UniProtKB/TrEMBL annotation:
SUPFAM superfamilies: Calcium-dependent phosphotriesterase. InterPro entries: 6-blade_b-propeller_TolB-like (IPR011042), Oryzine_lactonohydrolase (IPR052988). This is SMP-30/Gluconolactonase/LRE-like region domain-containing protein. It comes from Aspergillus viridinutans.
Length: 125
């Protein structure tokens, strides 16, 4: 029988949304709030959490919602303005809503689509 146990992220996650398990690590799309920017957070359940993406060319993300990672290590994550428009618990948006592609091996990050797609959600393979 499999066991489950509680994990207490250090530092803690701030309004964590979608999560994806990849190579033994959990990648979270963290919405953030007024004091903690929206970001992709890498969590090793045995050690610590680490912010691995929190801006696009110096502009902070709005309100990340979901993330999915391909077998090749390409992460797709969605960034809408949920926290601002729906809950008013994040700072005003700096970027258009969109879907981002992040090559985890090279660190390259690009905006794959957005603007006209409304509130992006749930990338999947």
């Amino acid at each position: 029988m499999k066991q489950t146990s509680k994990v207490y992220p250090d530092p803690p996650l701030t309004i964590a949304n979608g999560a994806y398990l990849f190579n033994g690590l959990v990648y979270w799309a963290q919405e953030g709030n007024i004091t903690t920017p929206s970001s992709v957070v890498k969590m090793d359940p045995k050690t610590l959490t680490e912010v691995v993406q929190n801006n696009f060319y110096g502009h902070r993300f709005n309100s990340m919602n979901d993330i999915a990672v391909s077998d090749e290590g390409i992460a797709f994550f969605t960034d809408g303005n949920y926290g601002w428009g729906d809950f008013n618990d994040t700072l005003s948006p700096q970027l258009a809503n969109g879907v981002y592609l992040w090559d985890m091996s090279t660190g390259n990050l690009c905006w794959s689509s957005g603007g006209c797609i409304g509130q992006p959600e749930r990338p999947c393979f």
